[in-house]
Amino acid sequence: MYNKAILFDDKEIAFKILHSTGPKRHRYSGRKVKNFSKQIWHQHCKQFAYEANHAKFTQNKNLQKHLVETIGKCFAEASPYDRNWGIGLSQSNPKNIDRNNWRGKNWCGEVLEAVRKNIFS
User: Fold this and answer.
1) Do residue 60 and residue 115 come from a single domain?
2) Cβ(41)–Cβ(6) under 8 Å?
3) 41 found inside a domain
4) Of 76, 72, 64, 82, which Cα lies nearest the Cα of 119?
5) Alpha-carbon gap, residue 44 to 20, rounded angstroms
6) Distance CA 96, CA 79 (A)
7) What is the rounded CA–CA span in Å between residue 57 and residue 112?
8) 52: left (phi over 0), alpha (psi -120 to 50) or beta
9) Residue 74 pLDDT grade (very low, low, confident, very high; cuts 50, 70, 90)
């Protein structure tokens, strides 16, 4: 969300995000970014997520250990409400097993798989 605010030159929201704690607060502030353009955001957001996750998993050996244990598996954000970052289905929905049933783009899964591939190949 900080990168979102910076991308759209909203220094006030960027400051709030940087000085707040908790993801809920960050998401709330991120929705308030001025001059937001969905088209521009979609051109940059996956790269921001990639960079953050790459840093997270390369700086923390315990998390890296968990990531390596997922090799051979796919990631899916089982969110029935998010069709960009998630698959548009809940974790309890039996349709979530088959990618052909997914209603979302699963950018979260794509990013994590790209990070994993970069770190372990």
Assistant:
1) yes
2) no
3) no
4) 64
5) 23
6) 10
7) 10
8) alpha
9) very high
DSSP symbol at 96: G
* Of the candidates 44, 8, 55, the residue with the CA atom closest to the CA atom of residue 29: 8
- Sequence-ordered list of residues with C-beta below 8 angstroms from that of 28, at least 6 positions apart, any chain: none
Structural contact between residues 115 and 63, judged by C-beta atoms closer than 8 angstroms = no
Compute the distance between CA of residue 67 and CA of residue 54 in angstroms, rounded to an integer: 11
Helix axes 38-59, 61-68, angle to 10 degrees: 100
Residue 87 CA to residue 105 CA, distance in Å, equals 6
* Domain ranges, residue 17: 1-36
Do 58 and 26 share a domain, yes or no? no
Band (pLDDT 50/70/90 cuts) for residue 96 is: very high
Same structural domain for residues 111 and 79? yes
Residue with tokens 């707040």: 20
Q: How many residues does the chain have?
A: 121
Stated pTM of the model: 0.91
14 and 66 assigned to the same domain? no
Total number of domains in the chain: 2
